[in-house]
Design brief:
rod-shaped, Collagen-like protein, five-stranded parallel sheet, single chain, six-stranded parallel sheet
Length: about 290
Amino acid sequence: MSTSSTPLDVTVSPSSPLYITDTNNQFGTVTVLPGGQIFVQTTGKISIAALVKSTNNNAKALVSQQATGDINILGAPGAAGTNGTAGGNGQNGVAGQNASCNWASGCNDGSNGTSGAIGGNGGDASDGGAGGDSPATTMYIGKVTGTFSVVGGGGNGGNGGAGGNGGNGGNGGNGGNGDSSGAYSRGGYNGGNGGNGGAGGKGANGGNGGNGGLINITYGSLDAGSQLIAHPIAALPGNGGTGGIGGTGGTAGTGGSSGGANGTPGNTGSNGVSGSKGSNTGQAPQINIVPGS
């Protein structure tokens, strides 16, 4: 019930919508200016002595499936899922040491380049939340002046998060160079292999649409040309998130001169699987608008 002992008169405008709640649901005259909207957020009994449009404009146009109207009884939309985190890039390989030869003392050996590290896998995303059910509503309006749209339905399901991209593989280190002096020589050393890219994370599933609750609106009288128009809607499920993209493989290290072999490039990581659309469309509410007292 309203916290006020006397029902209050209210003017509703685009900048000042009316939210009908558990503690604010008993009203005198509610005047709706062009573009003003009413939102019902309670299952308590609602009483409006007179509902008036300030002009003879038509009911608020509904241009999409989840549009809002003049009087709105809607469930909360589901929260979007969280995206997966990106995988870290692999560290690059270390370049090999060059050989060093001296005609009198021989050679100090060089070394191969080391391989790049594998990129980290992208994280999996989280699912979108289910849309909320719209509140079951009982409303009495003593007198209606003007045409009002009554929109009811559950909230749309949240979209699933996108999988994180895989990290890139590290590059292979270059091989050390060979050397020669007098009778002593060393060939070039091999380059390191590139690291493989990390796999992309999985995209998450979308949430289901919420259901519409039973809506009963009773009115005492309608002025000439006035009406309440029901617009029940079925809430849509959320879309699945995209899978993460696999990381790029690292480049191969170059073989040292002379004669060192190049390393092998790393492979691109696999792409993550995309999530699925939510499995259920919400049930549209039953909206009953009848004369009575």
